[in-house]
Prior knowledge:
Elements: E1 3-5, E2 9-11, H1 14-17, E3 22-27, H2 53-67, E4 74-77, E5 85-87, E6 92-94, E7 99-102, E8 108-113, E9 117-123, E10 128-134, H3 136-140, H4 143-153, E11 162-165, H5 178-181, E12 189-190, E13 198-199, H6 201-211, E14 219-221, H7 236-239, E15 246-252
Parallel strand pairs: 4-6, 4-8, 5-7, 11-14
Antiparallel strand pairs: 1-2, 2-3, 3-15, 7-10, 8-15, 9-10, 9-11, 12-13
Organism: Fodinibius sediminis
Pfam families: Cu-oxidase_4 (PF02578)
Family: Belongs to the purine nucleoside phosphorylase YfiH/LACC1 family.
Amino acid sequence: MNISSSDFSYIIPHTAVENDRVEAWFVLKNQGHSLAGSRVEGLNLGFNTQDEESVVARNRLLLFEDLGIDPKWVALADQVHGSRVQVVTDDGTYASTDGLITTLPGLTLAIQVADCAAVLIWDSSSQVIGAFHAGWRGAVAEIIPRGLAMMKRRGAASKSLRAFVSPCISLENFEVGPEVAEQFPSPFVDWDTYHKPHVDLKGFIRNQLRSEGLKDSHIEVSGECTVAGSRDYYSYRREGEESGRMMALIRIKR
């Protein structure tokens, strides 16, 4: 895990660090940060939380300033735990969307999470990038294969695609009912160890990426669990309505 910090702390995917055309970040909770009037501890970036919109908007501006991102040149998904992916060429919030793709240098794509996986994918050779929100619903609805197919239609090649799967809920903490577990292939469900079935969301997403032709060496999956890591990560499963939201961002350099 490559954690960088200036005013704030975030994870930079190793393969993005090696790349001179793409920048990517996963923003941590930043527990010590606090704005006057905030109800959520840390750098809460989600409007769908207990914080006032003015607090979240200020947090976002502070983050964008720290990363050198133009706040007027950010595309965000208004996530609904679905599999809709849009190709975007402008800033703004895209309704009922859980995946964004662009080929436009300088336009930053942003995804919010609090236990779901944020999946950042890029092909720097053809300059195609994507950001995807993959909770269990989106994952089984194949948002990742759908997004990769759209990226390939825009010039991305399996052999040069790279992916980062963010910290998210781990198998140990992802207890589900049988109606959810049955939607996953058996290799990604532990039916025996726990009182109820547990799902390996990270393993399932990694397998989807492999099945779409990505090399193992081009897939980086964080080993961190959002539920277990209360200092660094928000977790809706742990905190419920009191949880904030983290953010994953990616852009092609101008």
